[in-house]
Design a protein that fits this description.
The structure holds two protein chains of two kinds.
Chain A (H helix, E strand, L loop, with lengths): L8 E6 L3 H10 L8 E6 L7 H9 L4 E6 L10 H18 L7 E5 L5 H18 L28
Parallel strand pairs in A: 1-2, 1-3, 3-4
Chain B lengths: L7 E6 L5 H7 L4 H8 L1 E4 L8 H6 L5 E7 L2 E3 H13 E7 L1 H5 L1 H4 L6 H11 L14 E4 L2 E4 L3 E6 L9 E3 L6 H15 L19 H4 L46 H4 L17 H12 L5 H9 L4 H5 L13 H5 L2
Parallel strand pairs in B: 1-2, 1-3, 3-5, 5-9
Antiparallel strand pairs in B: 4-8, 6-7
Helix pairs in contact in B: 2-8
The chains are: A alpha/beta, B alpha/beta.
Chain lengths: 158, 332
């Protein structure tokens, strides 16, 4: 199964640096694995840990968080907030039984297209080694040992 | 409606401690209003009724059911489904039913580890025969059955549809009183029910909003547990003093009782409005106030925050996005 396992990685990019790095990688025809799905944020400081938890619980095998190099944030120091959230989130995820290697933080400037592509390739291989995360969907395909499915709710109140 | 014309009321406890029942009695003389306006048909802690009495009732014949406790066993699940069928309004009452609460913290651990702790490892446990609970047991008289213990605890709305949520561990008596008043007014045609799925018995915003402590600029170099502090400033925000206070993410409704008494908010009123994952909101808040830009120093500061998962999900683990740790959901 692991032979054909293609990890799904959600990548969060910063509008001012890493998103442009990915763009540069594209225009420069630098190849990187298609396993990463990039989502553009205005800043890595916008990264709410909720996004990471939602990605992992929703079927992603890994998450890549990217931002401007320390000292180069477009909004002065929000990337430091992202750094602190990332370090705190990793500790919490470890307690939840999720390997910390599934979530990675990479700084990449707008000029570092090749570097970002390398980091994406590296993370893809690391997660391939870790294997699928397969977080349960809890409804439908998730079955408890006794095999009583969770009752489907006719009209779920928001 | 019963013979005396009064609508029916029920209350049930699943995986909970019984504190919610005490909280209902703690509304003092208002409990007489409950009696005056409702026929109490099912309330295991207060009166002797059997499950089969509930089964015999017509579907939808109970007007109001306050359901407290999470869904830990097959018995809990059966009763949740039964009471859902019999009730017009099913209220997830208290933190356990809303979001898992303390019993939900067991979702950090596999079922095997839980059983080993209770039936083998505890110092006070003497169990030389290695007795473990089994769903069915053969005895000379025949086969005995007990409810199955599920691998993870679920919240009430993860099992059946819930009409209203009333958080708190337990809900505060003035909030319970206000909700009961409201239901009585609805019965008399003087008020309307809140929109379906609403969280009731709460105040808008967060605990910080109700907290009288002064808030300034938060810069934390170290987290300290409250028991390790010699002196706590009585006026200043607890989080600013490095005490991990869950106020910023927690729904208002309690009147900020704990911070006023000098203890940090532990988050029993659950996620504030618009918060998808309670722990994530707290991680955002805590990480924002750490005063360092150096990864090594940040790690040292985080070392002083003992047990992040327990801090961020003390009441909300079963109701969080991840719901349970990997060892827990893998165990069967």
């Amino acid at each position: 199964m692991t032979d054909t396992f293609e990890p799904v990685i959600i990548g969060f990019t910063c509008n001012w640096c890493s998103y442009r790095a990915a763009d540069l990688a594209g225009t420069a025809r630098v190849k990187y694995p298609p396993n990463v799905r990039l989502i553009r944020l205005m800043c890595s400081g916008r990264l709410d840990p909720t996004f990471v938890l939602k990605a992992l619980s929703g079927g992603a095998d890994g998450v890549l968080i990217t931002g401007c190099h320390p000292g180069e944030c477009h909004y002065l120091e929000q990337n430091y907030k992202a750094l602190r959230r990332y370090l705190l989130l990793r500790r919490t995820l470890t307690q939840m039984g999720i390997e910390p290697g599934r979530v990675k933080l990479v700084w990449a400037s707008a000029a570092e297209g090749v570097y970002l592509a390398q980091e994406i390739a590296k993370l893809t291989e690391e997660i391939r080694v870790l294997g699928p995360l397969n977080w349960p969907k809890w409804q439908g395909d998730f079955k408890f040992a006794h095999d009583i499915p969770v009752e489907h709710l006719e009209e779920v109140a928001a | 409606m019963t013979a005396n014309g009064k609508p029916k009321f029920a209350m049930y406890w699943a995986a909970s401690c019984g504190g919610c029942e005490i909280a209902v009695l703690n509304i003092h003389e208002k409990i007489l209003d409950v009696d005056a306006n409702f026929e109490v048909v099912f309330w295991p802690v207060a009166m002797d009724t059997k499950y089969k009495d509930v089964e015999k009732m017509e579907d939808g014949s109970i007007l109001l059911t306050l359901f407290n406790g999470g869904i830990r066993t097959s018995e809990n699940e059966e009763l949740a489904k039964l009471l859902r069928r019999k009730s017009k309004l099913l209220v997830a009452f208290g933190s356990c039913a809303c979001e898992g609460c303390i019993p939900g913290l067991a979702n950090l651990t596999s079922r095997e580890a839980l059983m080993n702790t209770v039936y083998r490892n505890e110092i006070s446990t003497v169990n030389a025969e290695h007795v473990r609970p089994h769903v069915s047991t053969q005895v000379p008289e025949g086969e005995l059955h007990i409810p199955e213990f599920y691998p993870v605890l679920r919240t009430l709305d993860q099992v059946v549809k819930v009409d209203y949520y009333m958080p708190g561990c337990p809900p505060e008596s003035h909030q319970i009183g206000a909700v009961i008043d409201l239901v009585i007014q609805v019965l008399q045609g003087k008020a309307e029910l809140p929109p379906a799925g609403a969280t009731i018995g709460v105040s808008p915003s967060t605990v910080c909003e109700e907290c009288p402590r002064t808030r300034g600029v938060k810069n934390i170099k170290k987290f300290t547990r409250i028991q390790d502090l010699e002196h706590i400033d009585p006026e200043l925000c607890l989080l600013e003093q490095g005490i991990p206070c869950n106020g910023p993410a927690t729904h208002a409704g309690c009147g900020a009782l704990c911070p006023q008494a000098g203890a940090q908010c532990i988050g029993c009123y659950g996620p504030a409005e618009g918060v998808l994952d309670y722990g994530a909101r707290l991680m955002t808040a805590f990480a924002s106030v750490i005063d360092s830009q150096d990864p090594e120093e940040i790690d040292q500061i985080l070392d002083t925050l003992v047990d992040p998962a327990g801090q961020f999900y003390r009441f909300n683990l079963a109701g969080s996005l991840l719901r349970a740790s990997k060892p827990a959901w893998q165990s069967s």
